[in-house]
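Lecture notes, continued. The same structure-token format from the folding unit now serves as the input rather than the output. Read the line below as a description of shape only.
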């Protein structure tokens, strides 16, 4: 019943409290029923627990990254680095091969390096590096050490790359770990693909 029905009682007439209470209760139950129907409908638009655990792919505009710069995005709760390498940085890659523990990314390839990144630059396009910014040793996040040359905690012939501040693991500009360091592996290259020259999809490398 509506408020109009309740108000239809003539002025001064005695009010049937039992009937009034029944009408109010009926309206309340009806409203609750609408709410109960709405909840599953709205929930159907929420990501499933499996989807949350898997992590949706992330689309990134990389047009603004200048040579020598790095962009960080989040995927599956992890920092993913996108580095636009300079020609000078790319030229250092073959020069440090002999100093690296896994220069050809042969360790755990199915976990750490997709087939299309099993090259010296560990990338689809030479100038663009895409790696997860977490050290495989104990999960710390390495620092950028792009500048070459002697620096604290780095060798005098440092060619540029990354330094883990927790236990001293060093990685070259392709995320490859140096020999005799705590990290057992190179930095992970996540699944990724180019949607265009300036748009990158991280977390998916299968074309529809």
């Amino acid at each position: 019943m509506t408020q109009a029905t309740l108000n239809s009682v003539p002025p001064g007439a005695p009010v049937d409290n039992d009937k009034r209470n029944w009408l109010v209760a009926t309206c309340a139950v009806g409203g609750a029923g609408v709410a109960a129907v709405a909840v599953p409908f709205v929930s159907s638009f929420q990501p499933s627990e499996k989807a949350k655990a898997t992590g949706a792919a992330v689309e990134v505009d990389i047009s603004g990254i200048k040579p020598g710069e790095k962009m960080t995005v989040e995927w599956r709760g992890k920092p993913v680095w996108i580095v636009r390498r300079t020609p000078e940085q790319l030229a250092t890659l073959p020069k440090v091969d002999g100093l690296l523990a896994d220069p050809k990314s042969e360790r755990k390839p199915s976990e750490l390096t997709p087939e299309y990144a099993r090259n010296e630059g560990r990338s689809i396009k030479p100038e663009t590096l895409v790696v997860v910014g977490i050290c495989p040793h104990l999960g710390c996040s390495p620092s950028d050490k792009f500048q070459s040359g002697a620096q604290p905690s780095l060798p005098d012939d440092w060619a540029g790359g990354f330094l883990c501040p927790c236990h001293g693991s060093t990685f070259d500009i392709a995320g490859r770990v140096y020999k005799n360091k705590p990290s057992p592996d190179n930095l992970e290259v996540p699944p990724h693909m180019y949607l265009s020259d300036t748009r990158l999809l991280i977390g998916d490398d299968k074309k529809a």
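Point for the exam: Helices lie at 3-6, 17-43, 49-54, 87-92, 109-112.
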